[in-house]
Fold these 2 entries.
Entry 1:
Amino acid sequence: MTSAGAARRGARRALFLAGAFCAGMLILGLLGYGVLRLFLWHPWSDDDRDSRADPGSGDVSLSKSLRLTGLTLPPGATNVRYYVKANMRGTLVQLTYRVPCGRVPGVLAEAKLTTPVAMDAIGAQNVRHFAERHGWRPDTGTTTALTDTKTWPTTALVNTPPGAVDCSLYLDAFN
């Protein structure tokens, strides 16, 4: 074998390696660009999020999280705020809103929240923390804690300020 043949083979090999390197970099660049575009396009970016969602809420919409946990948002509810987290174990929804006090018994009956519980019960702690983050104070009227008749997946606090027309409901549900 001549040295000219070995030089040509070496040149071809170097050209092949350079081409393979360029092709690999092009593929990696396109993948990186695609991931960046997907990240920037993601429909649940902060600009597209429901303004009623608390900071740190997951990507599950309020309507879907209500459907998953069996809660409902009564028509005419005001001051709606919520927090939702979903993972493989289930969906946690914490929801607060105000409704006329006369509608509260119907809302609670529909949600099957009829069993009174102690305010400091273990099942009521999460909803208490959520309620405190949203302005509830123990000294602002009467507060009642209720749970469903099942195994504590849903708990509610109902706050009735003295002489108020609207009552605040704070709910914590997991499914």
Note: The chain has four helices and six strands.
Entry 2:
Amino acid sequence: MSFQSFALDDIEQLQESAQVEFKLAQGRDGQGQLPEGMWESYSAFANTIGGEIILGVKENGSGFSIEGIHNPMPMLSEIWEILNDRSRISRNVLAPTDVQIIEIVGKRLIRMRVPAVPLSERPVYIGSDPYSGSYFRVGDADMRASRRQVKIMLRRAEVERLAANQQTHSP
């Protein structure tokens, strides 16, 4: 299997931002495991301006290092399984091309590009309750949405859907 190869000029300059989140994803045995916290980032990116989750990168106090994922294929299957399980994630907003195995300095990583969803499709949340599973991206952190923020998203989504219906049904 061939992997998309990315060249980074200076790996030491890696940093998280409003649109980039790194997760180690090594698991207890070092063979690779999806980190639970990545779904908070998925929700946060979808509910704000979108972003990328890169699995296989370790945070070291002052910076990051590329550790890679020994066997990424089972993790890819698990990602799609979770994304398509409505009891775990409210909505799959990813296309097949949004999740890739990439190779940097000879190490394989998983890259997930999460688009911002339209207001009419928000909130994207973890689990079955939007009030406890919705997140926003604030700087380089995922923040749980307050009850008030979720109500606003739900209200805006309804207004957007009603406006869209009126446009399609008007003469």
Note: Residues 4-169 form a domain with the Methyltransferase, Cobalt-precorrin-4 Transmethylase; Domain 2 fold (CATH 3.30.950.30).
